[in-house]
């Protein structure tokens, strides 16, 4: 027996977070469809509050806290979008947010956290340093730890992204999402399992941070050591709760090189005229690498976020 969020709980989460998120558009591009030989629908979470899907999970987790827990605020460790999302959700709720960030986190993401009123505590850029520092912060403040992805309230919130896609009434043959910690992929897989069990769920993952791919193949969790990829949002290791969902409800995980990610990212910039971060381009890169598997199909692709440092774009 599992405690996976049910469809009713996912729908309740969607209602709960309505005041705090955007219902993001589903865009198409005839030019990219012709390149892909498929009918693609891009769910633009790069237009979401805080510029990423993470706004959903953070808003849901904070909204579900009891009044007593809220008094001491929330804490997390994150190098990026979850940090900003939690800081914003806490700010809206009028409670403190303590964010442990590695010293090498992108400056744009640190600025976002500060802008939302989050208190940043810097640490060495290792998972062990993150966790040790977080433990100290929680002990000192009594704040509630909201894990970036390995938390059912967070997964439930991320699952609302696919719920909105299914509400569009399109009969998707496949849905695609990037995978880092697995919150978005796990949530997408759950919602789709409830609403359209025959739809294939495919993840894209960078070759330089391929722990989800290796874990999926081995059917056991293999933590990532020394990830290296341009897709900075996907450097984290896959979460345990998400891995259980992924093993049950995801059909495949496809790895792509940084060159393939940059090429897909450029394609979206040039053809769709929208700003996305490298992690966002990973599912499209995976589709283009395996075009024959998607030929003439309707494919939904979640564009996970748009928080990119414009001074460091990977193409000139």
TrEMBL record:
Superkingdom as given in the UniProt entry: Bacteria
Ranges for domain Tryptophan synthase beta chain-like PALP: 17-305
Transmembrane segments: none
InterPro entries: Ser/Thr_deHydtase_PyrdxlP-BS, TrpB-like_PALP
CDD domains per record: Thr-dehyd
Cofactor: Ca(2+); Mg(2+); pyridoxal 5'-phosphate; Mn(2+)
Biological process according to GO: D-serine biosynthetic process
Keywords attached to this entry: Lyase, Magnesium, Pyridoxal phosphate
GO molecular function, a single term: L-serine ammonia-lyase activity
Family: Belongs to the serine/threonine dehydratase family.
Name listed for the protein in its UniProt record: Pyridoxal-phosphate dependent enzyme
Species of the source: Arthrospiribacter ruber
